[in-house]
Amino acid sequence: MNANPILLQKKYSRVIECFAKQQGIPLDAALDFFYHSEVYQLIRDGVSDMHCMSDAYLAEELGQEYSRKE
To answer: How many CA atoms within 13 Å lie on the side-chain side of 70?
Structure first.
């Protein structure tokens, strides 16, 4: 299933903000990490309707990916 591109952009911004707060990192660092993450690729490609997951869940998934890459 494909989501509306405008709604996806809003979703991305909320997830990035939540992720930055959880990790205690600047928004620009969170933005850069997000757009190079596996989570972003899954959402963008519509895999498993990831865009339907809550912002907090997606931020947590990003956090797990972030901790693996540090």
So the answer is: 7
pTM (2 decimals)?
Answer: 0.91
Map tokens 């540090």 to a residue: 70
Number of neighbouring beta carbons within 10 Å of residue 14:
14
Burial (CB < 10 A; 0-12, 13-18, 19+), residue 64, is: exposed
3-state secondary structure the chain: CCCCHHHHHHHHHHHHHHHHHHHCCCHHHHHHHHHCCHHHHHHHHCHHHHHHCCHHHHHHHHHHHHHHHC
In a structure prediction context, what are the per-residue pLDDT tens digits for the chain, which is 70 residues long? Answer: 577 889 999 999 999 999 999 999 999 999 999 999 999 999 988 888 888 999 999 999 999 999 998 7
